[in-house]
Amino acid sequence: MLAAAAALFASYALASPRYASNLPVLRRAAPPILASAPPSSPAASPAALELSAFPPAEQSLAARLQARLQLDDAQLRKLLVAHPAVLGYSFDANLEPKLGGLAAHAALSDGELRTAVLRFPALLGLSLEGNIRPTLEELRRQLDLEPGSLRRLVVSSPQVVGLSFEGKVRPTLEALEARLGLRREEVRGVVLRCPQVLAMSWERNLLPTLDALQTRLEMSDEELRRAVLAMPQVLGLSYEVNVRPKLDFFERELELSTEEVREEVPPSRTSFDKLRLEPLLTALFEAFICTAA
């Protein structure tokens, strides 16, 4: 019965028109046209973009960028559509130092650097000294990240390098730590498993989700802390759009009481795998937008 309910729930979640709002907060949509292309350029979809339509200097820069990142033609087109301003940069004075600096500070291989750039092309427009380097250094220091952890964070969520640590990241980390009573190593685990929390608004997103979840499930502060540590992906979900409809589903379709749902919120990952509602809670918290550890 639980397997069938899990399948039903997964179908419901994926088919829901609300699912569009589950896209990663940090994802950047590519513009429909290549804004910086000359008037004679073709429509800038990845399939239609022809580099031969661009001036020789821009063609040369695109070719050097393609060689540096070992991009195939489709990947290059995708990159240029997503961040057309790159064609106005200097490769030697801007792009190469930035790419080399990012790779060095995050210990990225050539393949990992390519993946990071393709996932977040706008990082090519960031300042190495003003954005990338200070953010990576503070993340490493404040969260006591090992090189491998920092590398995985940058590859999976390269958008973090564009965040202001003092203006955005530090206040969010401190508020999360205070609200849930987390130790530094626990905050680190939350960030590594759900890195988009670094870019989310504490007042508009994270705090309302925590408060609503605690109220709905009648959880103590300690129960809420354990739930978030066991499944930090819940922080990336909207309570009204994602969490409340699923909790309603549990209570309506499975006839579970609030107490029964609360009791199934896992105190630890180890015991979570053995719980009878594991398929349903996995569908609720993991099927959407966060990166697994």
Descriptive notes:
There is one protein chain. The protein is an all-alpha fold and 293 residues long. Helix content is 60%, strand content 0%. It has 15 helices and no strands. It has helices at 2-15, 56-69, 73-82, 91-106, 110-119, 128-142, 147-156, 165-180, 184-193, 202-216, 221-230, 239-253, 258-264, 269-272, 278-286. The longest helix is centred in the middle third of the chain and has 16 residues, at 91-106. The protein is elongated.
The biggest sheet amounts to: none
Distance between the termini: 29 Å
Order of helices and strands: HHHHHHHHHHHHHHH
Mean pLDDT: 77
Please give the radius of gyration in angstroms.
Answer: 22 Å
> Which parts are unreliable, with pLDDT below 50 for 5 consecutive residues or more?
1-48, 267-280, 286-293
Shape: elongated
| Structural class label | mainly alpha
Count of DSSP strands: 0
Strand content: under 5%
SSE topology:
Elements: H1 2-15, H2 56-69, H3 73-82, H4 91-106, H5 110-119, H6 128-142, H7 147-156, H8 165-180, H9 184-193, H10 202-216, H11 221-230, H12 239-253, H13 258-264, H14 269-272, H15 278-286
Helix pairs in contact: 1-15, 4-6, 10-12
Compact overview of the structure:
Helix content is 60%, strand content 0%.
Looking at this protein, list some descriptive labels.
single chain, 293 residues, mainly alpha, 15 helices, elongated, disordered N terminus
